[in-house]
Write a structure and sequence with these properties.
The protein is α/β, with parallel strands linked by helices and about 260 residues long. Helices cover about 60% and strands about 10% of the residues.
Protein backbone atom coordinates (compact mmCIF):
# COMPACT_ATOMS: atom_id res chain seq x y z
CA UNK A 1 0.00 0.00 0.00
CA UNK A 2 1.43 3.37 -1.03
CA UNK A 3 1.24 6.47 1.15
CA UNK A 4 -1.38 8.10 -1.07
CA UNK A 5 -3.58 5.00 -0.94
CA UNK A 6 -3.20 4.78 2.83
CA UNK A 7 -4.17 8.41 3.33
CA UNK A 8 -7.17 8.00 1.05
CA UNK A 9 -8.33 5.04 3.14
CA UNK A 10 -7.98 7.02 6.37
CA UNK A 11 -10.07 9.85 4.94
CA UNK A 12 -13.04 7.50 5.17
CA UNK A 13 -12.77 7.80 8.97
CA UNK A 14 -13.19 11.58 9.00
CA UNK A 15 -16.57 11.85 10.75
CA UNK A 16 -15.85 9.15 13.33
CA UNK A 17 -12.45 10.62 14.26
CA UNK A 18 -14.16 13.81 15.42
CA UNK A 19 -15.71 11.73 18.22
CA UNK A 20 -12.87 9.28 18.80
CA UNK A 21 -9.83 11.55 18.55
CA UNK A 22 -9.83 12.72 22.17
CA UNK A 23 -10.33 9.17 23.45
CA UNK A 24 -7.44 7.87 21.31
CA UNK A 25 -5.16 10.69 22.43
CA UNK A 26 -6.11 10.18 26.09
CA UNK A 27 -5.54 6.42 25.82
CA UNK A 28 -2.15 7.10 24.18
CA UNK A 29 -0.95 9.39 26.98
CA UNK A 30 -2.40 7.14 29.70
CA UNK A 31 -0.37 4.22 28.36
CA UNK A 32 2.71 6.37 27.85
CA UNK A 33 2.65 7.58 31.45
CA UNK A 34 1.88 4.15 32.90
CA UNK A 35 4.50 2.25 30.90
CA UNK A 36 7.33 4.73 30.29
CA UNK A 37 7.51 6.73 33.50
CA UNK A 38 11.31 6.67 33.61
CA UNK A 39 11.68 7.94 30.03
CA UNK A 40 9.16 10.70 30.62
CA UNK A 41 10.85 11.75 33.87
CA UNK A 42 14.20 12.02 32.11
CA UNK A 43 12.67 14.25 29.44
CA UNK A 44 10.95 16.45 32.03
CA UNK A 45 14.23 16.88 33.91
CA UNK A 46 15.82 17.95 30.64
CA UNK A 47 13.06 20.52 30.15
CA UNK A 48 11.83 18.78 27.03
CA UNK A 49 8.09 18.43 27.77
CA UNK A 50 6.09 21.39 26.47
CA UNK A 51 2.60 22.31 27.69
CA UNK A 52 0.20 20.62 30.05
CA UNK A 53 -1.04 17.05 29.63
CA UNK A 54 -4.47 18.32 28.61
CA UNK A 55 -2.94 20.52 25.93
CA UNK A 56 -0.85 17.65 24.54
CA UNK A 57 -3.94 15.45 24.37
CA UNK A 58 -5.88 18.18 22.59
CA UNK A 59 -3.11 18.75 20.04
CA UNK A 60 -2.78 15.05 19.26
CA UNK A 61 -6.54 14.66 18.82
CA UNK A 62 -6.55 17.67 16.49
CA UNK A 63 -3.74 16.14 14.42
CA UNK A 64 -5.62 12.84 14.12
CA UNK A 65 -8.71 14.74 13.01
CA UNK A 66 -6.76 16.79 10.49
CA UNK A 67 -5.23 13.65 8.97
CA UNK A 68 -8.56 11.91 8.49
CA UNK A 69 -10.27 15.05 7.20
CA UNK A 70 -7.39 16.00 4.92
CA UNK A 71 -8.62 18.35 2.23
CA UNK A 72 -5.81 20.90 2.54
CA UNK A 73 -2.80 21.17 0.27
CA UNK A 74 0.26 19.15 1.25
CA UNK A 75 2.18 22.33 2.06
CA UNK A 76 -0.44 23.23 4.66
CA UNK A 77 -0.38 19.64 5.87
CA UNK A 78 3.35 20.01 6.38
CA UNK A 79 2.69 23.06 8.57
CA UNK A 80 0.44 20.84 10.70
CA UNK A 81 3.44 18.56 11.13
CA UNK A 82 5.54 21.49 12.27
CA UNK A 83 2.96 22.23 14.97
CA UNK A 84 3.15 18.59 16.04
CA UNK A 85 6.92 18.91 16.45
CA UNK A 86 6.35 21.72 18.94
CA UNK A 87 4.56 19.37 21.36
CA UNK A 88 6.26 15.99 20.84
CA UNK A 89 9.65 16.80 19.37
CA UNK A 90 11.86 15.45 22.15
CA UNK A 91 10.03 12.18 22.75
CA UNK A 92 9.58 11.80 19.02
CA UNK A 93 13.29 12.13 18.36
CA UNK A 94 14.36 9.99 21.30
CA UNK A 95 11.76 7.20 21.22
CA UNK A 96 10.08 7.08 17.80
CA UNK A 97 9.38 3.33 18.05
CA UNK A 98 7.53 3.79 21.34
CA UNK A 99 5.34 6.51 19.87
CA UNK A 100 4.54 4.40 16.83
CA UNK A 101 3.65 1.33 18.89
CA UNK A 102 1.50 3.20 21.41
CA UNK A 103 -0.46 5.35 18.96
CA UNK A 104 -1.24 2.37 16.75
CA UNK A 105 -2.35 0.34 19.77
CA UNK A 106 -4.65 3.16 20.91
CA UNK A 107 -6.21 3.39 17.44
CA UNK A 108 -6.56 -0.39 17.21
CA UNK A 109 -8.41 -0.58 20.53
CA UNK A 110 -10.68 2.39 19.86
CA UNK A 111 -11.70 1.15 16.41
CA UNK A 112 -11.68 -2.54 17.45
CA UNK A 113 -9.38 -3.49 14.58
CA UNK A 114 -7.59 -6.76 13.96
CA UNK A 115 -3.81 -6.60 13.66
CA UNK A 116 -3.95 -7.24 9.91
CA UNK A 117 -6.83 -4.82 9.25
CA UNK A 118 -6.23 -2.57 6.18
CA UNK A 119 -7.14 0.49 8.25
CA UNK A 120 -4.44 -0.30 10.80
CA UNK A 121 -1.92 -0.91 8.02
CA UNK A 122 -2.88 2.47 6.55
CA UNK A 123 -2.35 4.18 9.92
CA UNK A 124 1.08 2.54 10.22
CA UNK A 125 2.13 3.77 6.76
CA UNK A 126 0.90 7.33 7.30
CA UNK A 127 2.32 7.51 10.82
CA UNK A 128 5.72 6.29 9.63
CA UNK A 129 5.76 9.09 7.05
CA UNK A 130 4.77 11.67 9.67
CA UNK A 131 7.50 10.52 12.06
CA UNK A 132 10.17 10.56 9.35
CA UNK A 133 9.04 14.02 8.27
CA UNK A 134 9.00 15.40 11.81
CA UNK A 135 12.43 13.97 12.57
CA UNK A 136 13.74 15.47 9.34
CA UNK A 137 12.39 18.91 10.20
CA UNK A 138 13.78 18.69 13.71
CA UNK A 139 17.28 18.77 12.27
CA UNK A 140 16.68 22.44 11.47
CA UNK A 141 15.14 23.57 14.78
CA UNK A 142 18.21 25.59 15.75
CA UNK A 143 18.69 27.25 12.37
CA UNK A 144 17.35 30.80 12.02
CA UNK A 145 15.59 29.97 8.74
CA UNK A 146 14.30 26.52 9.73
CA UNK A 147 10.83 27.33 8.37
CA UNK A 148 12.32 28.35 5.04
CA UNK A 149 13.74 25.08 3.73
CA UNK A 150 13.90 24.83 -0.06
CA UNK A 151 11.00 23.14 -1.82
CA UNK A 152 11.44 20.67 -4.69
CA UNK A 153 8.28 19.76 -6.64
CA UNK A 154 8.42 16.81 -9.03
CA UNK A 155 5.55 16.09 -11.42
CA UNK A 156 4.99 13.38 -14.00
CA UNK A 157 3.20 14.13 -17.28
CA UNK A 158 -0.32 15.53 -16.69
CA UNK A 159 0.09 15.42 -12.88
CA UNK A 160 1.76 18.83 -13.04
CA UNK A 161 -1.38 20.61 -11.87
CA UNK A 162 -1.24 18.83 -8.51
CA UNK A 163 2.01 20.57 -7.54
CA UNK A 164 1.14 24.00 -8.96
CA UNK A 165 -0.82 24.89 -5.82
CA UNK A 166 2.13 23.77 -3.69
CA UNK A 167 4.39 26.05 -5.70
CA UNK A 168 2.08 29.03 -5.16
CA UNK A 169 1.96 28.47 -1.41
CA UNK A 170 5.70 27.86 -1.14
CA UNK A 171 6.48 31.06 -3.01
CA UNK A 172 4.07 33.03 -0.83
CA UNK A 173 5.85 31.71 2.24
CA UNK A 174 9.19 32.89 0.85
CA UNK A 175 10.67 29.50 0.09
CA UNK A 176 13.13 28.87 -2.73
CA UNK A 177 11.03 26.69 -5.03
CA UNK A 178 12.18 24.38 -7.84
CA UNK A 179 9.84 22.49 -10.17
CA UNK A 180 10.91 19.42 -12.14
CA UNK A 181 8.46 18.22 -14.81
CA UNK A 182 9.04 14.85 -16.43
CA UNK A 183 7.05 14.51 -19.63
CA UNK A 184 7.28 13.41 -23.25
CA UNK A 185 4.98 16.22 -24.39
CA UNK A 186 5.02 20.00 -24.38
CA UNK A 187 2.83 21.80 -21.88
CA UNK A 188 -0.71 22.72 -22.80
CA UNK A 189 -1.21 26.45 -23.27
CA UNK A 190 -3.13 27.02 -20.03
CA UNK A 191 -0.67 25.05 -17.90
CA UNK A 192 2.24 26.77 -19.57
CA UNK A 193 0.73 30.13 -18.61
CA UNK A 194 0.51 28.99 -14.96
CA UNK A 195 4.14 27.88 -14.95
CA UNK A 196 5.35 31.09 -16.60
CA UNK A 197 3.44 33.13 -14.02
CA UNK A 198 5.18 31.29 -11.20
CA UNK A 199 8.62 31.66 -12.77
CA UNK A 200 8.04 35.41 -12.77
CA UNK A 201 7.58 35.11 -8.99
CA UNK A 202 10.89 33.27 -8.57
CA UNK A 203 10.24 29.59 -9.23
CA UNK A 204 12.99 27.67 -11.07
CA UNK A 205 11.66 25.21 -13.67
CA UNK A 206 13.36 22.18 -15.21
CA UNK A 207 11.81 19.96 -17.88
CA UNK A 208 13.11 16.46 -18.65
CA UNK A 209 11.67 14.24 -21.34
CA UNK A 210 10.82 10.66 -20.48
CA UNK A 211 13.24 9.55 -23.17
CA UNK A 212 16.71 9.50 -21.69
CA UNK A 213 15.35 9.42 -18.13
CA UNK A 214 17.84 6.82 -16.91
CA UNK A 215 20.84 8.73 -18.21
CA UNK A 216 19.77 12.12 -16.86
CA UNK A 217 17.80 11.59 -13.68
CA UNK A 218 20.24 10.25 -11.09
CA UNK A 219 22.84 12.94 -11.70
CA UNK A 220 20.21 15.67 -11.96
CA UNK A 221 18.38 14.72 -8.75
CA UNK A 222 21.68 14.46 -6.89
CA UNK A 223 22.48 18.01 -7.93
CA UNK A 224 19.15 19.63 -7.10
CA UNK A 225 18.73 17.82 -3.75
CA UNK A 226 22.17 18.84 -2.50
CA UNK A 227 20.56 21.37 -0.13
CA UNK A 228 18.27 18.72 1.40
CA UNK A 229 14.97 20.26 0.28
CA UNK A 230 11.43 19.35 1.22
CA UNK A 231 10.20 17.16 -1.62
CA UNK A 232 6.69 16.71 -3.01
CA UNK A 233 5.89 14.35 -5.87
CA UNK A 234 2.77 13.99 -7.99
CA UNK A 235 2.33 11.17 -10.47
CA UNK A 236 1.47 7.52 -10.83
CA UNK A 237 2.32 5.27 -7.92
CA UNK A 238 5.08 3.67 -10.00
CA UNK A 239 6.58 7.09 -10.70
CA UNK A 240 6.41 8.06 -7.01
CA UNK A 241 8.05 4.77 -6.04
CA UNK A 242 10.82 5.31 -8.59
CA UNK A 243 11.52 8.83 -7.35
CA UNK A 244 11.53 7.64 -3.74
CA UNK A 245 14.14 4.99 -4.55
CA UNK A 246 16.31 7.56 -6.35
CA UNK A 247 16.10 10.05 -3.47
CA UNK A 248 16.69 7.52 -0.69
CA UNK A 249 17.63 8.23 2.10
CA UNK A 250 16.02 11.69 1.79
CA UNK A 251 12.95 11.02 3.96
CA UNK A 252 10.56 13.83 3.14
CA UNK A 253 8.50 12.64 0.21
CA UNK A 254 4.74 12.90 -0.20
CA UNK A 255 2.65 11.42 -2.93
CA UNK A 256 -0.52 13.18 -4.06
CA UNK A 257 -3.13 13.50 -1.34
CA UNK A 258 -5.84 12.47 -3.80
CA UNK A 259 -4.78 8.91 -4.46
CA UNK A 260 -3.76 8.11 -8.02
CA UNK A 261 -4.88 4.51 -7.48
CA UNK A 262 -7.71 4.62 -4.97
CA UNK A 263 -8.61 1.59 -2.93
CA UNK A 264 -12.13 0.19 -3.21
CA UNK A 265 -14.54 1.39 -0.53
Amino acid sequence: MHFDQALHLLQQLGPSMEQKGLRIATRFYDSLEATYEEELRALREAGAQDGTRALRILRLSQLLNQITNQHESSELFKLILLNEIDQTKSFLLTYPDIISREILQAIQIEYDLKEDAPLLQAWAIVHHQLVDTCRHFCKYRHAENWRQQDILLIAEEHHLGAVIDEARHALLSGRKTTLLHVSAEELAERMLANVVSLTMKGMVVHHIRREGWEQQMHEFLTMITANDPIVFVSGSTNFIDEIQQRLDPLPVLFGPFVAANQLPS
